[in-house]
Each structure stands twice: as structure tokens, then as C-alpha cells.
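Hey, quick one: can you model this chain's 3D structure?
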Amino acid sequence: MQDLTQGSIPRHVLRMAAPIAAGMLFQMMYVLVDLYFVARLGDAAIAGVGAAGNVQFVVMALTQILGVGTMALIALACGRKDREDANLVFNQSLLIATLCSVVVLAGGYAFGGLYLRLLGADAATIAAGTEYLYWFLPGMALQFLPTVMGAALRGTGIAKPAMVIQIITVVLNVVLAPVLIAGWLSGQPMGVAGAGLASSISIGVGVLLMVGYFLRLEKYVGFDARQWRLRLPVWKRILAIGLPAGGEFVLIFVYMGVIYWVIRDFGAQAQAGFGIGSRVMQAIFLPAMAISFATAPVAGQNVGARHPERVRATFRVAAVMSATVMIALTLLCQWQPELLVRVFTRDDAVAGIATEFLGVISWNFIASGLIFSCSGLFQALGNTLPALLSSASRLATFAIPAVWLSVQPGFELHQLWWLSVVTLALQAAISLFLLQREFRLRLPQGALAG
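Sure thing. Here's the predicted structure for all 450 residues.
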């Protein structure tokens, strides 16, 4: 366990953020590798995999519930020097993770086809998306256990082991993707099914490696069969923090679904362009997300140790770091957005849509960085409901106008992208207001000050 209640806050944030960013970067690399090979299968394959991949936001919502709840409670326990409570939270989270895995498998195979029929632009897109989803579902279900274990480590101030294991799984996926998707070496291409299978195998290997680490090396929290009996009060504590955080990802799922539904009449090329642009955007967001992930345990341990000024200072550090990174990435997307998308498609129409998307949407990168920083502090404070309210406000201000715009004469895609920019800026302002309120309510010395 690393004590984050003493010493330089910027150094703690950077020490945590660096391995988190590396792990997330490699995680995104396997998404981009899949996209690269899937793009060679045509527009329908890109659009189908993009629509099916949107189901990942539901899984991410469930993993976020567990990850945020586990990390926050363990960080608070570490701040209080309460190892017994940290272990109880960890082992109860494993029980919830097992239940979630079963739910994802059953729900995915039962309703995945129906979901894709609602969003697919044509029969080929629906078929490709369904095939990919069914092969990727085992991997989605397996994500819960490593999420809990990684969150527990972050709560104790340790990030490197999860990063190393993540890199190993990504390298494995990069090796498997061309073999299974394109048939390299084997001569038996599986197409989009190979993309899903490669991801599932890689995630499975990651689970085994993470379990091995906890059995052999982790000392502060670990598997304890005596704590695997259902403890509803602990579940309530985890869910009280985690559910609103998971709700944010459900809203992202709905937000993405609204976009796919609104643009479906523009055809598979439009959905493919948006799919490529949104994946590139997710990769661009990784540095700011890593800072947010690092901020939560640093601030959380200081909340538990009752150091309010260090909590406020952690937010200031995170906000400045995120804004600096996002300014640089905004300039990159304004300078040469086409360079970021051309590697994934040779289709001029698809590349044009993705390029226009990045050129417009990059104006909200700074606001996104502030939202990520605020979310990290909400987790640390043990109240993630304000983050959910902020996300809900964005969905309400975006979805209704988007549907209205889509039925107007002369509707064009760039109108949708500009609507997204405006509504995200509003969300950032709401997040900052709600965080200031939480600081006044929960930290002894009151206002959020410079």
C-alpha cells in the first residue's frame, strides 16, 4: 500500500497516472488494431462492429459500478488505516463481479441481435455486428474480475501491476487479430468473428495473470474465502458510490445509440465514419482519463485521512494537467485530423465524415478534461450522484434537439457534431458547480478556492 496522504500531490498524481495511461493506451491499441483489420472488410463491417462495440458501454457501466465503488471505499479505508474493511470490500466486490459476468452473458446472447436490428443501417451491417458481438461477449463477461482487482490496487495507491498485465493482453490481441481476422499464417480468415474472438482470448489470459498476481504478490488486500458470504451492508456501500458512476456509462451508451439512430438514414458510410472518428476520439481522451483515474485514489486517501486542503489541491493539479493535455490534442485535431483517420479507411466518403467529426468535436476536448477531473473528485468524496446528474443534463440537452434536427429539411451531420460541442460545454459548467457545492458540504474549510 502506498500512502498518498503525505508528500507532493503532483508527484503522486503523475506516478499513478503514468502507468494508468500506459495501460489505457495499450488497451486502446488493440481496439485500433481490430479496427484496422476490420476496416479491410468493408463499410458494413466497420459500421456493424462500431454499433456492436457500443454494447461495451453497458459492460463498462457495470464494471464502472464495481470499479469506482471498490476503489473509493478501499482508498478511504487506506486513508483511515483500516485494512480489515479494505479486504471486506474487495472480497464482496468479487461476488458482485461473478454475478455481473453471468448477467452479461445471458443478456448479451438473448438481446444483442435485437439491439443491432434497431441500429443497423442495412442487413449487412446487422449481420456483421451480430457476429462480432456474439464472439466478443465472453470477453465482455470476463472483464469484471480484473476490473475489481485493478480498482483495489488503485485504491491502495498501486497502478503498475495492472498496467503490465494489460500490456501483455494487448500484445497478445495484436498478435491474434491478423491471424484470426485476416487469416495470416492460418489461411482461415474469420472476419469480424475473429476480432471478437481475439479480444475474448486476450481478456481471458489477463484474468489468469491478475489472479496469479494477487495469489503470489499482493499483501494488503487479497482473496479470503471467509469473506465471500453475502454481506448486504457492504454491497449497499459499494453500490451507493458505484451505481451513479455506472449510470454515467449507461447514459453514454444511450447518447451513442441516439447518434447511430439519427444518422442511420445517411447509410453505412456515415455510421462507419462516425465509428472511426469516435474510436480515435476515445484514444485521444486517454491522457485526461488517466489523470482522472489517478486523481480519485489520491484525493480519496486524503478524504479518509481528513486532509481537506490536500483534496482541493488535488483537484487543482488534475484540472491544470488535464487542460494542458487537452489543449495540445485540440491543436492536433485542428491541424491534421485526416492523418488520424486515414490509416483506418481508404474510402474518401468515410474518411471525410470521420475527419469532419474530429475537426468539430475537438473543440470540446478541454471541457471533457474538466469533466473527467470533476468525476475523479466526486469518486474520492464518496458521492458520484453529481457526476450522474451532470451526464444526464448533457443527454437531455443533446438527445431531444438531435432527434428534432434529424427530421428538419437540409439536416447535415456537422449540425449534430456542433450540438455535441455546445452541450458538453454546458455539462462542464454544471460539473464544476456541483463539485464546488460538494466541497462546501463535505470538506470542513468550505469553498472551492484557487
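One thing worth noting: Residues 83-119 form the longest helix (37 residues).
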